[in-house]
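Troubleshooting entry. The earlier prediction with S-adenosylmethionine gave an output that would not parse, so I re-checked the input for stray whitespace and re-submitted. Clean input:
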Amino acid sequence: MKDVASDSEHWAGAAAQWIAWARAPNHDAFWAYRDALADYLGTATGRALDVGCGEGRVSRLLKACGYTVTAVDPVAELVRAAEQAQSAHDYAIAPARELPFENESFDLVMAYNVLMDVVDVPEALREIKRVLRRDGTLFISIVHPLADLELLAETGPNAPSDTHARYFERRRFETKVESRGLTMHFAGWAQPLEAYMSALESAGFAITSLREPAADLREGRDHMSRWSGLPLFLWLQAKLLPFHT
Ligand SMILES: C[S@@+](CC[C@H](N)C(=O)[O-])C[C@H]1O[C@@H](n2cnc3c(N)ncnc32)[C@H](O)[C@@H]1O
């Protein structure tokens, strides 16, 4: 079933929750990976596009790295929040499948924890390819497939009795997380790594770098200790293959 409307609809309903969740200092996982992400990105110049920017924290990091940043998200409330926090230099409201930019306009396209929310990942990657310069870099963060299995075992439809791993299926997840006074509804799809690889390949991308960052437990992040022994996120950098049409 291709339900194109539903990917950003969930986020439109969860926007206020997300802004509170993402902006509470040290609250969610992002904070335990932010320094490693900054190190991995390094300092840079050029134009970066932050696809699915949310309230703007990754845009702010890209800006701090030296990029001229355009932040785009299909949810107007999130783009407004990103703009209010001066997260980027430019802003647009659009889904990944329909980016309102010229061909080959960006040196870096960032899709940070976004592709799990996208109905049609191959379509999104083809559109990202269109706006990326031929020598540009695509940066993707997804929930690590190992973490997906672990989380699904706890929160999946039949948990905790459903012990049959279903790694090879594309699986819908919808979950409400309550943590330290805040609530967040997440929804999206978990899918095998091979599905991401195949979407990258067919769009003409080759993976050039991969990281499995461990959570940084400093600064009172004991609540993240489980993710110091298991990867929560998978980071990929990809480049366009020459001669791919
Ligand atoms: C988990 S949040 C991540 C936000 C931000 N990248 C971050 O890491 O803080 C997922 C984001 O993806 C956006 N999103 C959902 N469907 C999308 C789509 N089809 N195209 C682009 N972004 C989408 C949501 O609106 C939301 O802002």
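This one parsed fine. Confidence is low (pLDDT under 50) at residues 1-5.
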